[in-house]
Amino acid sequence: MNSFEYAMPKRTADVFRALESSDSIIKAGGIDVLDLIKEGIAHPQRLVNINSIDELKYIEGNQTTGVKIGPGTTLAELASSEVLSGSYRALAQAAGSTATPQIRNSATLGGSLCQRPRCWYFRNKDYHCTRKGGFTCFAVNGENENHAIFENDFGCVMVHPSTTAVALIALGAKLTIASAKSSREILVEDFFVTPRENMHRENILEQGEIITAIHLPPAAKNMVSYYYKQKAKQSFDWPIAEVAVSMQLDGKKCQNPRVALGAAAPVPMRSKEAESALNNQEVTIDIAASVGKEAMKKATPLSQNKYKVHIFQAVIKRTVCWASDIDPFA
Amino acid sequence: MEEKKNLSQKEISRRSFLKGAGIASVGAVIATTASVDIKADTKNDSDVIGKNGISCEFDVNGKKYAQKVPPRTTLAELLREDLNLTGTKVVCDRGACGACTVIVDGKSVCSCMTLAIDSAGKKIETIEGLANGDELHPLQEAFVNHDALQCGFCTPGMVMSCKNLLDHNAQPTLPEVRKAVSGNLCRCGTYPHVFKAVMDVSGKKGE
Ligand SMILES: Cc1cc2nc3c(=O)[nH]c(=O)nc-3n(C[C@H](O)[C@H](O)[C@H](O)COP(=O)(O)OP(=O)(O)OC[C@H]3O[C@@H](n4cnc5c(N)ncnc54)[C@H](O)[C@@H]3O)c2cc1C
Ligand code: FES
Ligand code: FES
Questions:
Q1: Report field, pTM of the whole predicted structure over 0.90
Q2: InterPro entries per the record (chain A) (predicted)?
């Protein structure tokens, strides 16, 4: 790792000043930042450690008021949160299926949203790929089995790595983003940036801006949610396909569904096709299966990842079933 | 004007030093004032530790160590290279295998992805802290009895993950044990024996 100096602000207000010096980056749990430095992808001169700021660590509120979460909350804390066990359970499930127990004890929600891509060409400093300012996306004609099956014709075919984002999008969550001068709110689904919009960044954060809060809206009547991830290895792994669903369920009648897909595109994405196939339906295994098929109609897989289309169909079917308390294998 | 600027920089470095002593009492404990290296940051109200680091006090297995660490030193490097506690292993150095697992303030973490400076003043437990002299910890005893290791390279991390589980949950179910070691890769495939060892210590026979 290159040498860096270490700022230890104690209050959020002090973070902005510490960030003013160029070549400084925020470090929360440090799991992604340290990996990037060790790989020689990032060379910060200063880390601004926000992990000891207590005012960024909390889970407040309930299903009636909505829930506000501090970005410094760890994934382990989210996974075991009582508040997230009902209508919002997709978020606890997503946090709990991210990485390993040890990583979840360190990694934070803010860091999970802002982590950089895990594409093996991006993470290898010997490949000067488009996202690092080069002219070639090595995955397009290379090893692309884990890459995008949507939005993959714009010069970078990575999939966004954030598992928590998938659940937050299904739950309609918002972020508060603050800088020294101002603050703004944005839906999680609008936070991420596709390669079509900008190849060199994954989200809209400007230098000097940080996420200061994550908001789950009040749960609608009879709202249920579910998150599920298919991985290659049973114990822990990155997803091949991950899906989060939320909907209002009156008996088995579904209303206002939100279906979010991870490991599908360079951004965690909503599937409008899945949502319209599910809206106003009485959920059954057959309906759930047709939702999976609709969601994949416009997929454009690469040379090595056609299998992901089939896996997504199955994972969407199962997630819709489990959200509706139906056994998909019955 | 120039003179005034110099003066205020001096003031700032003095103030920053004193504030450095302030963080020290909460997190990092400064051992000797001579080795303190807190850089004055004129624009900045927060404390910045320079690249050369700061002298901190570490509590490892109940024993106190004073050590100067640069910010980039990982906890695994501190333990193995500075404190000569080589029981903690490093395999991937990227948070993906669990060989380097230690317990910090009651939570299992990958010491390869934890900065030493962040662990100063906290309670660090490593594999060396388990046995009491020649007397093995019950979990170590159970690992031996159940043949829960082959090459042994994953074992210190595996044992620390199991200890962390039992510290929080003395009577885990088999799925809970499986989950607790899901971040510890064992290429020799000792998992079934590890599960039996943990169930044995918890007083349950497993499966
Ligand atoms: C073995 C392994 C398996 C993994 N599997 C998964 C997986 O399945 N799914 C998944 O999603 N992830 C996975 N990860 C990645 C892991 O979840 C992330 O690296 C972690 O969540 C990052 O959080 P952190 O707090 O450590 O962030 P840091 O590394 O501290 O920061 C990450 C980035 O976020 C920025 N940042 C942090 N907090 C804020 C904030 N409040 N405002 C603005 N910017 C901020 C930092 O500047 C940095 O750029 C895995 C990691 C490992 C090692
Ligand atoms: S060496 Fe730390 S997780 Fe592999
Ligand atoms: S005993 Fe050899 S890796 Fe686990």
A1: yes
A2: CO_DH_flav_C, CO_DH_flav_C_dom_sf, Diverse_Substr_Oxidored, FAD-bd_PCMH, FAD-bd_PCMH-like_sf, FAD-bd_PCMH_sub1, FAD-bd_PCMH_sub2, Mopterin_DH_FAD-bd
